[in-house]
Design goal:
Elements: H1 3-11, E1 21-27, E2 33-38, E3 43-50, E4 53-57, E5 60-64, E6 68-72, E7 78-82, E8 87-93, E9 105-108, H2 111-123, H3 132-145, E10 149-150, E11 153-155, H4 160-171, H5 179-185, H6 190-201, H7 205-222, H8 227-233, H9 239-250, H10 254-261
Helix pairs in contact: 2-3, 5-6, 8-9
Length: 262
């Protein structure tokens, strides 16, 4: 994270007053940027304008591709990790100001909501409690409540065996270690590990690993990698096999998916 970003975030306290919503625009330059684990009274919407952001909360990792946002309810510990040259906008919403989800989720953001958030971020946090900006916030929150929820997250777990696998796969997504091999390393039977993964994440081991691949792929594609590069990084035998996985998960091949976001 650049020094200016560090200073800007360190000086910004979203909980300093009780305005219904305040915005903050951030640019990360030339390097991956991470905001360590923290929490605040206000809920936080993390909107990716360019590049992508990964948000980690207890037991889940949430992906923010361009033109989407992750909603993090107030009081929930979380960290944010942005790709190279990401442009991000944060919207902090006072509890009870809008009927937003009580759980973390990914929201598809309409052009109207996006522009309202950007305009609010450019006004600064000290707008008058009544007046044009205050009325704009009312419209923004009304529109935000109707934003569609999308399933762009990876369930994780605090269980040491699952955390070990998640960390290894995040470091090397092309790792094709089988469930039986992971079980042997964990001194468990394959059946016991399969049950543990499904109980903790709600997914089978195969689906869980595929979801991790999807999160990594979205992040790398948003950062500018080619489909060929991403397929190779994830260890797919062919680009076609990767595109098939992507289309099955999101309904469109990568090029069409990102074109539709634009």
């Amino acid at each position: 994270m650049t020094g200016s970003c560090v200073g800007q975030l360190a000086r910004f306290d979203p909980d300093v007053d009780h305005r219904p919503a305040v915005g903050l625009r951030i640019e990360f330059e030339q390097n991956d940027a991470e905001q360590p684990v923290h929490c605040h009274r206000k809920g936080q919407l993390v909107l990716a304008l360019r590049g992508a952001v990964t948000c980690e909360v207890p037991k889940a990792m949430w992906m923010v591709p361009p033109h989407h946002a992750v909603w993090i309810p107030g009081g929930m510990p979380h960290s944010n990790h942005a790709t190279d040259n990401a442009r991000v906008c944060f919207l902090f919403v006072e509890p009870e100001a809008a009927e937003l989800p009580t759980q973390c989720c990914t929201l598809a953001i309409s052009p109207l909501v996006r522009e309202l958030i950007l305009y609010l971020a450019d006004q600064g946090p000290s707008y008058a409690p009544s007046g044009p900006i205050s009325r704009l916030v009312t419209v923004l929150l009304e529109q935000l409540v109707t934003a569609p929820v999308e399933q762009l997250h990876l369930p994780t777990s605090g269980h040491p065996n699952i955390r070990r696998i998640a960390d290894a796969l995040a470091a090397d997504p092309a790792d094709r270690t089988t469930l039986a091999e992971w079980a042997e390393r964990s001194a468990m039977s394959g059946r016991s590990l399969a049950r543990l993964v499904e109980r903790e994440t709600g997914l089978t081991f195969g689906r869980w690993r595929q979801q991790l691949h999807l999160i990594v792929a979205l992040r790398q594609l948003a950062a500018g990698a080619t489909v060929q590069q991403v397929a190779g990084h994830l260890g797919y035998d062919s680009v076609t096999a990767f595109i098939t996985m992507f289309k099955k998960a999101l309904g469109q091949p990568p090029a069409q998916y990102f074109a539709s976001l634009r």
